[in-house]
Amino acid sequence: MGILEVKDVNKRFGGLQALGNVNLSVVENSCHAIIGPNGAGKSTLLNCLVGKLIPDTGSVMFDGQSVLGRKPYEINQMGISRVFQTPEIFGDLSVLENMMIPIFAKRDGAFRMHAVEHTENEKEIVDQAEHMLDSLNMADKRHFHSASMSRGDKRRLEIGMCLAQNPRLLLLDEPTAGMARADTNNTIDLLKQIKDERDITIAIIEHDMHVVFSLAERITVLAQGTPLVEDTPDKIKGHPKVREAYLGETA
Amino acid sequence: MSKSNLTRRGLLKTSVVAGAGVALPTIFTASSAAAFTNEPTGGSVTLGFNVPQTGPYADEGADELRAYELAVEHLNGGGDGGMMNTFSSNALQGNGILGKKVEFVTGDTQTKSDAARASAKSMIEKDGAIMITGGSSSGVAVAVQGLCQEAGVIFMAGLTHSNDTTGKDKKANGFRHFFNAYMSGAALAPVLEKLYGSDRKAYHLTADYTWGWTQEESIVASTEALGWETVNTVKTPLAATDFSSYIAPVLNSGADVLVLNHYGGNMVNSLTNAVQFGLREKQVNGKNFEIVVPLYSRLMAKGAGENVKGIHGSTNWHWSLQDDASKAFVKSFGEKYGFPPSQAAHTVYCQTLLYADACERAGTFNPCGVAEALEGFEFDGLGNGKTLYRADDHQCFKDVLVVRGKENPTSEFDLLEVVEVTPAAQVTYEPDHPMFAGGNLGSCNAGA
Amino acid sequence: MDAIILQILNGLDKGSAYALIALGLTLIFGTLGVVNFAHGALFMIGAFCAVTLSKILTLSFETVDETRTDFLGNPLKVKTPYVEAWFGPETGGMLIDWAVPLAILFSIPIMIGIGFIMERGLIKHFYKRPHADQILVTFGLAIVLQEVIKYFYGANPIPTPAPDALTGSFDFGVLLGFDPNAVIYPYWRLVYFVFAAIVIGAVFAFLQFTTFGMVVRAGMADRETVGLLGINIDRRFTIMFGIAAAVAGLAGVMYAPINSPNYHMGMDFLVLSFVVVVVGGMGSLPGAVLAGFLLGVLESFASMNEIKSIIPGIDQIIIYLVAIIILLTRPRGLMGRKGVMED
Amino acid sequence: MLGLNKKDTTLLIIVAALTLLAPFILNPFPADSALAQFNAGYPDLMQRFVIFGIFAIGFNILFGLTGYLSFGHAAFLGVGSYSAVWMFKLLSMNVIPAIILSVIVAGLFALLIGFISLRRSGIYFSILTLAFAQMSFNLAYSVLTPITNGETGLQLTLNDPRILGVSATADGSIPVTNLFGIEMRGTYEMVAGPWSFQFNTGYYLCAIIMLLAFYLAVRIFRSPFGMMLRAIKSNNTRMSYTGLNARPYALAAFVISGMYAGLAGGLMASMDPLAGAERMQWTASGEVVLMTILGGAGTLIGPVLGAGFIKYFENIFSKINDNVLHSWFSFMPDGLEDAMVALVYPFIGKGWHLTLGILFMLVVIFLPGGLVEGGQRIMRAFKRRKPDETSSETTTEPAE
């Protein structure tokens, strides 16, 4: 029984079958990659997991509880964090503030009217945030206007913000898309480090095979909205159907 | 705030220390050295002219301002003296008021009660105005009148036609020279009967706010007294610009007269629309369909253009009147500005003269003394025949004009012709008339 | 029944004005992404084009008529328009009479010119600025434009009648078998409706069938991609702004005989036209037109006595009430696209 | 001090000094000089400065922090005014119950409208708020006249019950608003040489309330709640994927700013007991938007500056007439004097709208951050001239 169980999920957009009978089981504390050609339904699947879309049929269980019908913020409060294809951070806020917000959310829940406390007096939160920034090697950038940082730094910050909540499941949507080689490698190192240091489950959607094969313990190949195969990276590499459906095309 | 202010403040502080000993309380306070609000102490006295300078009534306001400047000029002995020469009271000398030179400040009411009060307050608090006058709507008049009562200055209302101004909202410090909705009804009814007979069915379109309602009530009452039937009364939103959907059903309602209880832009548009729909060429119940606009002004008639031709209404005054006073006023106004004055200009000119005259007769600027001099004052020679400022409600009673849009105007000003001058007696009502009930003048307030 | 037909006619007519203004507003918003609070002022300037032309045509010289006197008792100066003197009273009178339709020709180059100047001189610098800044600057511009008009033309409405041949009204009811006088409708309003339909049709045809239109439509859908294709989209957008200004101006020119133009008529329409655009869906041209007609018709129905007697004051709020209901049930208006103006 | 850091404390002290010394600062010209026209230190305008300051500060909590642009905030101000006047009519002329009621009623009204309007964002939200406010205005002007007294505005009369007070004073006038007996209209005039300064009780009450409101706004800006509001503006998506529910945050900000507007409305009625429907019109809502943007949205002091700027023009420039102009330029030769008057005339008096419109455009074109940015530029230019030990700014405080 995995921490995330997707059963018979179907999703149609008008005449298009975006997801057809998807079954997926992500084992706790593993790194599971979902790959597939463009339009295979990877993003649709991800959106079904975090409450942005609701599947037409099927079930999505996280740690024994259904996520369906819950709002994104409720699902996050259950322990699922998501990293976006283009980094979604609070661009108008400083790096430190970006890091404090998820910590507040973890401590206070979805809403709390703390309008008279002074942010600077929230010692415990500030400390945690600074500690987190330290561990990301971003301590020197804490007062930066976050929108003005490089894409790699934004990605790092975003991952850090997700980790600051101690999620049980981290969802990554093409975390290295559009990145320079060096930034990609940094990101891979960061993710490896996270995997090693924490009890965390990672599900990753990725185009870049280098990233996938460096991180994933299991891989699901999606094509036309349906899982083609699911196996270990080594097996996937040699799988004829996969080569035909996916790797062949992009090679 | 920039740095220079800080240094200036330092400077001020020292001078304050030097002058702190002469601090004295004034204005709006219960205990004061002055006898009344803004008692003029120097060689001049300041009047506050509060007229709409922006918004839809800006042209009317501009005309009021012209008349005020003319009145001030005459009071100070300049110009040809205008109606001061025809005014039955001879108290005014042409040397200002009570020997003090008349000065004035102006403000913008924006035709909003709030803005009008703000502007009046600034004249009282900042410029030391002893009297406030002007305005182009009843809402503003009532609001400013209330303020003047509270502040202890005299308010000489400008253009305000609602019954409420001297009815339920009357105030001891406020005076109205302009006529009102009841008078419009009383003056119009006999003329309408003569023209259109006593068997008519009327359809009212009414601007949906206080003035519109009092006018509708007045006109309905006086036409029903003739035997007319009121088919329907429909309220139109103030913000309406296109009245087609209110006008279209009129023809089919069985009515043969349309009464437009609108003023300003509303009136221009509703009349234009009514004419567009061809109402005037129609026959209903075997009679010609007619349109009546109870409150007319020349500026509005100008806005409606050709559409006013042959349409009847009432007005406070018109420049084509041939009495000496009107001729004198038209002459001095026309020579100064190049065109004849509007009724708004006439009203505020009269109000300024009446106030100055009352001060002279009372021998004081004290509002209570001035009010006493105005109450029950009977005069002539200001263009509307014999006039009474009634003590009970501070309303003027004078002749009311019934006018008609002229068929063949000779100039751009020659838009209305006087059909009948309704004598004051015919438009006079009891002070406790139900349409004016509910108010209380209270007692005069001299402030200070 | 006749009352309903009458109100539908009224509604279509009001809707024509709303639709024309909203169409221009949406063009500017959709192509340039600019919230133009000065659009009402463009409508107003259009109406004043008609006023100006009729003033030009009635420019007069004065002759003194000793037999008559003016209000001061001086000999009356009689004005004769130059055009009547040049072309004879007949042709001259006809020119003056047809001032409003002639103003259509007169206004198009003026409005396009104003549009160009506005876009190149001001709006261009605000593409990348927040919507709040765009609102502030265009609102400031609207105030300036209307104050300039007020300075030259005064605050009073200026009557600008339709040609004699097109005044008067037409008995529709007889055609449909009702009693005479049941459904009458002014000719000029019919003209306005037809005119609006032609202008709307022309704008759609232009966008649909010309290369220019195709590029602009692509630009509305995704500005960056079209920019990458190397097409000079900015210049096309400038032209689009000119066209939007012209549409607003034409709406104003033809509106002049319906209600005498005054300097603040643009502000009266501004809020309403924004409501129309949003109800139609930001960035959707058919939505703007549809919403214009819909709100016009509903407003007319709400002013019927039968309805007002059930819900007092409904005609005061109907537009806003409908806007609220539509926005709550259809999050992006009637035909709005996702992601437009939601940040 | 007061739970603020040094910078904010300095700001608060400056604002306090400016407001408390306003009677001096706003009357820099001797009363008899030609420039006295530009003096703004009379009670009514000073009251308006701080009252609209409160309105704009509140509006900025919503717009400046969350980015939700409400086009219907004047409705709350109007509702606040009506509540206060009704309190004067029914209960007593003491301003405290009136102000409390106006804040509560405006808060409830904001809760209702905010709850519905916040279901949408962006311009859809703006139009929803606009629609609600316009409905309120139109109804207040017409159908609701029994409650609002329509066109004329709700006024006090000699027949009001005033349970805890008197319907009319002994000399037959309407009693005046007071704070436990201290009359709001009481003014003391201090004459210092050619200058005269007016100290008005009502103004000082408003000023103190504005300082409290400003202090509260600073606290909100610097609190975690304020940070969450800025987060909504910055990235709503990240907000919800961080486990935060943006809706109650935005609603809380909406209600708080509605209560500020109600407070402003209540104070307005306390200074001058009349509540007119025009206060709710869209132009009034637009005015507070303009004040905030003009001053600098999202900054603490900007909205107050913007409010002062617009009210100054409305009340001072509109009162300059051609006579005043002639007196200014009277030192010139006749022809030149007339030319100068003709040149300036379109921009003053009835042309004050034109001046305001031009200034809107100039400010937004040249000072994208509003008047606050203008101030910052001056400060920076000032600093650059002096050798400065502080490092040049690498980051600008987002909220400042």
TrEMBL record, chain A:
Protein origin, superkingdom: Bacteria
Domain ABC transporter: residue ranges: 4-249
PROSITE patterns: ABC_TRANSPORTER_2
Pfam family, one: BCA_ABC_TP_C
Assigned keywords, A-Z: ATP-binding, Nucleotide-binding, Transport
CDD domains, per the entry: ABC_Mj1267_LivG_branched
Database matches in Gene3D superfamilies: P-loop containing nucleotide triphosphate hydrolases (3.40.50.300)
SUPFAM superfamilies: P-loop containing nucleoside triphosphate hydrolases
GO cellular component: plasma membrane
Recorded GO MF terms: ATP binding; ATP hydrolysis activity
Protein name in UniProt: Amino acid/amide ABC transporter ATP-binding protein 1, HAAT family
From TrEMBL, chain B:
Gene3D superfamilies per record: 3.40.50.2300
SUPFAM superfamilies reported for this sequence: Periplasmic binding protein-like I
Domain of life: Bacteria
Keywords: Amino-acid transport, Signal, Transport
Leucine-binding protein domain residues: 45-406
InterPro entries to which the protein is assigned, alphabetical: BCAA_transport (IPR051010), Leu-bd (IPR028081), Peripla_BP_I (IPR028082), TAT_signal (IPR006311)
Signal peptide coordinates: 1-35
GO BP terms in the entry: amino acid transport
UniProt-listed PANTHER family: LEUCINE-SPECIFIC-BINDING PROTEIN, PERIPLASMIC BINDING PROTEIN OF ABC TRANSPORTER FOR NATURAL AMINO ACIDS
Entry similarity comment: Belongs to the leucine-binding protein family.
Protein name: Amino acid/amide ABC transporter substrate-binding protein, HAAT family
TrEMBL record, chain C:
Subcellular localization, as worded in the UniProt entry: Cell membrane
InterPro entries: ABC_transp_permease (IPR001851), BCAA_transport_permease (IPR052157)
One GO term (biological process): amino acid transport
Keywords: Amino-acid transport, Cell membrane, Membrane, Transmembrane, Transmembrane helix, Transport
Transmembrane regions listed in the UniProt entry: 16-35, 42-61, 98-123, 190-216, 237-258, 270-298, 310-328
Membrane topology, from the record: Multi-pass membrane protein
MF-aspect GO terms: transmembrane transporter activity
Keyword Transmembrane attributed: yes
Gene Ontology CC annotations of this record: plasma membrane
Family from the record: Belongs to the binding-protein-dependent transport system permease family. LivHM subfamily.
Protein name: Amino acid/amide ABC transporter membrane protein 1, HAAT family
Organism, as annotated: Roseovarius pacificus
UniProtKB/TrEMBL annotation, chain D:
Topological category with respect to the lipid bilayer: Multi-pass membrane protein
GO MF annotation list: branched-chain amino acid transmembrane transporter activity
Keyword line: Cell membrane, Membrane, Transmembrane, Transmembrane helix
TM ranges: 49-69, 98-116, 123-144, 202-221, 248-268, 288-313, 325-348, 354-375
Gene Ontology CC: one annotated term: plasma membrane
Coiled coil: none
Subcellular location: Cell membrane
Top-level division of the source organism's lineage: Bacteria
Pfam families: BPD_transp_2
InterPro entries hit by this protein: ABC_transp_permease, LivM-like
PANTHER family in alphabetical order: ABC TRANSPORTER ATP-BINDING PROTEIN, HIGH-AFFINITY BRANCHED-CHAIN AMINO ACID TRANSPORT SYSTEM PERMEASE
Protein name: Amino acid/amide ABC transporter membrane protein 2, HAAT family
Annotated organism of origin: Roseovarius pacificus
